Amino acid sequence: MAAILAPRRSAAILGLAEGLRRDSAEILRANGRDVAAATAAGLDAALIERLRLDDARVEKMAKAVEEIAAQPDPVGSVVDQNIRPNGLNIKRIRVPLGVVLFVYESRPNVTSDAAALALRSGNAIILRGGKESLHSNLAIGRIVRDAVTTAGLPEDAVQLVESTDRALLGGLLRRSGEIDLVIPRGGKGLITAVVDQARMPVLKHFDGNCHLYVDASAVAMPERVVEVCVNAKTSYPGGAVCNAVEKILFHEAAAGLIPAVCAGLAAKGVEIRGDESVRAAYAAAIPATEADWHAEYLSFRIALKVVKNLDAAIAHINLYGSRHTDGILTNDAAAAEDFTRRVDTASVMINASTRFADGGEYGLGAELGISTDKLHARGPMGAFDMTTTKWVVTGDFHCR
User: Fold this and answer.
1) Phi, psi for residue 250 in degrees, rounded to 5
2) Sign of torsion, CA 57 61 64 70?
3) What are the C-alpha distances in Å from 332 to residues 215, 327, 338?
4) Tens of pLDDT along 49-80?
5) Which of 138, 223, 371, 373 is most deeply packed, by most CB within 10 A?
6) Which residues are CB-contacts of 160 (< 8 A; sequence separation ≥ 6)?
7) Residue 240, SS3?
8) C-alpha to C-alpha distance for 207 and 211, rounded to whole angstroms
């Protein structure tokens, strides 16, 4: 795969987009089986919504794949270069990671996204989806394989594990000599199991306990604060996405905004929990416990708290947050700069919804996941994040 030039890999990606559109009816039939099984099993409505596909979502999948095909090819791109005093030309270039095992749950669009990103970055990838989306993934997997072989790439460049047997995953996680990296994307149980069993490096897509901090200066723009807070929680059905805000902190000087923010959230069906100050301002709030500050709800539930100042907000986020996405709503440039510098997180949002923490919104076309690790990638992972580097040193028969 590392030796295959960009045009052939691009052809495979474009073939995948074409196949998604051509065989959309087959995908939707398979997805219907998955949705019916999930409904019969009593899965949460928000999770079923994440699983469900329709014509518009399949078209969105195809467009995401096309965006990846149009991106600059990372393989061979020069990271940096310099000429040493002795005349040696030293540069670093991007190269594929190798064989990536990608373990994920629920959303079938992730199958086509991951395949396209692997092809763009010159990697081979093994896709192991969740049992909830098995039939959808099998249908998409057949389209991927057709696109890969039609473009003349090795047919096993993208492999889909066709069984959801957990023992099979355990076997894969022990094959450190053949698999270079594993990326788990899903619930905490899945990620913990992968970390415990893997014999190769793991790049984790962990919890999304995301925060918004309403600074003192935000009192000058109450309607905009309400709009962002409500969007950050409710723009996806059920709030069941990792970049939905789970906690909102208010500077004590901005506590007057609490009733309006709570009313906006409640109007969308959000259950509101809060500390004593929040409950004094909004009587319908449920008392928040210590467990609430740690929780990633992945539902229409949120917890609110009043803090003394910016320092207290930053301390709270660094203690309880998951290093995924955290934002500040403010009119104070110095406060925004201080927040950005001191909050330990993969994405900082300044006067923007946390829901923008997304590969597509960042111009990556799609994402393999949102890494909450610090090595070797952090935040939304696109094709460039699926590469490592190689030093290339060119001399004129130099000897040391």
Assistant:
1) -115, 130
2) negative
3) 8, 14, 10
4) 889 999 999 999 999 999 999 999 999 999 99
5) 371
6) 111, 126, 127, 128, 129, 137, 138, 141, 144, 145
7) coil
8) 12
